[in-house]
C-alpha cells in the first residue's frame, strides 16, 4: 500500500501544479489580448495635428496618431530591412509647422535606395514611435554609404538635424513610391496560448506516467 500512496500523491501534486500553470497562462492570454486590443485602438484612433504636439515625450506620446503636412526635403537615412525582400526603410525629413521632424516613409527595394523622394507638399498620417531596435550586437551605421542597421531616434535625429520625433507613416499623400509599414500590435508577442497548451500537455503526460507507474507497482505486488 505504501508503495502506491507515495507515487499517487506525487502524481496528484504534479498534475495540480502543471494544470495550475496552464490556467495561469490562460489568464495571461486574456490579459494580453485585452492589452493588444487597447493598443490597436490607440494606434487607429483619430489623428491629431502634429503641430499641436510639443516637446518629445516618448512615454506619453508613444503610438500617438498624428497627421502632418509639409515638405519632404529629400534628406534621408536608409535602414536595412527584409520586410518585403531585401531593401530599406526610408527615414526622411519633413519640414512642417516651422520645424523639422523625421518620417518613416516605408519600404523600398535595394534598387530604389537613391531615388529622389523630395516633394514640395506631402500629407503624412501615422503614429509617433520610438522603436527600441538597437542592442549590443547592432553594427554601427555605415555613414559613407548611408546605411543603418536599426532605427534609433536620437542618433538619427542628430544625423538629420531634426527634432527627436519619428512619424511612422500609415498613409502618404501623394504617393512617393514607398510602401508604408504602419504600426500595429502584431510585433508584440502573445505566446500565452502556446504556453498553456504546453503545461496542459505536460499535465496529461504526468497523469499517464503516474498511472503507468501505479499499474506496474500493482503488477509487481501481485
Low-confidence stretches are none
**Biggest sheet character:** 5 strands, mixed, barrel
Mean pLDDT: 90
Shape: elongated
Helix amount, in percent? 25-40%
Strand content bin: 25-35%
For the CA atoms, what is the radius of gyration?
27 Å
Spatial strand order of the main sheet: 2-3-4-7-5
Structural class: alpha/beta
Order of helices and strands: HEHEEEEEHEH
Write down how many β-strands occur, each being a DSSP E stretch of 2 or more residues.
Answer: 7
Report, as a whole number of angstroms, the end-to-end distance.
12 Å
Number of helices: 4
Question: How would you describe this protein?
Answer:
- This protein has 222 residues and is α/β, with parallel strands linked by helices.
- It has 4 helices and 7 strands; from the N terminus they run H-E-H-E-E-E-E-E-H-E-H.
- A 5-stranded mixed barrel has the order 2-3-4-7-5.
- The radius of gyration is 27 Å and the shape is elongated.
- The model has no long low-confidence stretch (mean pLDDT 90).
List the helices and strands and how they pair.
Blueprint: H1 2-43, E1 48-49, H2 58-61, E2 65-81, E3 87-96, E4 99-109, E5 119-128, E6 147-148, H3 153-160, E7 166-173, H4 192-221
Parallel strand pairs: 1-2, 2-6, 4-7
Antiparallel strand pairs: 2-3, 2-5, 3-4, 5-7
List keywords for this structure.
single chain, 222 residues, five-stranded mixed beta barrel, 38% helix, 27% strand, elongated
Give a short overview.
This protein is an alpha/beta fold and 222 residues long. It is built from 4 helices and 7 strands, in the order αβαβββββαβα. It has helices at residues 2-43, 58-61, 153-160, 192-221; strands at residues 48-49, 65-81, 87-96, 99-109, 119-128, 147-148, 166-173.
Amino acid at each position: 500500500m505504501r508503495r502506491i500512496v507515495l507515487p499517487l500523491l506525487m502524481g496528484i501534486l504534479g498534475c495540480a501544479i502543471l494544470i495550475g500553470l496552464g490556467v495561469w497562462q490562460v489568464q495571461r492570454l486574456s490579459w494580453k489580448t485585452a492589452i493588444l486590443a487597447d493598443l490597436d485602438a490607440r494606434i487607429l484612433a483619430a489623428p491629431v495635428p502634429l503641430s499641436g504636439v510639443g516637446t518629445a515625450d516618448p512615454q506619453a506620446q508613444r503610438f500617438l496618431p498624428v497627421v502632418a503636412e509639409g515638405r519632404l526635403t529629400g534628406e534621408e537615412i536608409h535602414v536595412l530591412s527584409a520586410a518585403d525582400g531585401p531593401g530599406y526603410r526610408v527615414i526622411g525629413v519633413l519640414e512642417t509647422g516651422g520645424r523639422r521632424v523625421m518620417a518613416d516613409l516605408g519600404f523600398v527595394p535595394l534598387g530604389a535606395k537613391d531615388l529622389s523622394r523630395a516633394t514640395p507638399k506631402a500629407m503624412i498620417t501615422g503614429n509617433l514611435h520610438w522603436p527600441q531596435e538597437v542592442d549590443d550586437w547592432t553594427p554601427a551605421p555605415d555613414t559613407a554609404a548611408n546605411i543603418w542597421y536599426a532605427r534609433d531616434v536620437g542618433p538619427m535625429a542628430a544625423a538629420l538635424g531634426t527634432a527627436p520625433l519619428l512619424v511612422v507613416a500609415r498613409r502618404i499623400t501623394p504617393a512617393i513610391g514607398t510602401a508604408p509599414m504602419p504600426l500595429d500590435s502584431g510585433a508584440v508577442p502573445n505566446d500565452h496560448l502556446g504556453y498553456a497548451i504546453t503545461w496542459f500537455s505536460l499535465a496529461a503526460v504526468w497523469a499517464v506516467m503516474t498511472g503507468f507507474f501505479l499499474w506496474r507497482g500493482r503488477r509487481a505486488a501481485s
